[in-house]
């Protein structure tokens, strides 16, 4: 068993938190960053944060943290909680705006009020996609910075229980970043066929801004098919089947984004609750 996972089996942790961390590590290793898998990851994070709340509610945990509340790692965890909330809020803003543009375009296609109305909605949709790419670069840069700073303070002279709690908190934060990163990458650019490290993929995206055609993953077809159909509609080459493809694709995308939006809302509440718990512990 690796040192990285050995602490997960420590008996002071509830069995449930061990299971949820293990499942999310498997998700992180195998996820292809589709809207469906990202939604599953958000659901897993909801369960993990429930377990974390139980851990922070334990009297032994609260005593261990409160006795070391002036150490640097406490400040780091609180700073990370603020950064995670910022990333979550900004990601929700991007999702919300995109969802609005998808809904407007779908309504325009359904009503068929005229070429000008449809063309305007298509242009708004395209602009929203371009804006997401710009916003994504900022979000990915912020997450990269957080990832580099995470766990900077060594755990010196800590008892075993406290060290375990700190590492769990750090792992939950790291997994949160991974979830946000997967979501932003999917909405910004097609997924690579190869399996590079997560941050090498981010670096490639940050440098190029786009991913080459050869690197597109089959799971981005739901976005590609919509783009192809909209291109035909804009150039007056759309038949009934093309209109149906665009309308159906947008409907599916809207439902998926709604699910992600709800998942992000739950995660935002969990992040708030975790930060409040930490603040309450160190204030006593």
From TrEMBL:
Pfam families: BPS1. InterPro entries: BPS1_pln (IPR004320). GO terms for biological process: root development; shoot system development. It comes from the Eukaryota. It comes from Vitis vinifera. This is DUF241 domain protein.
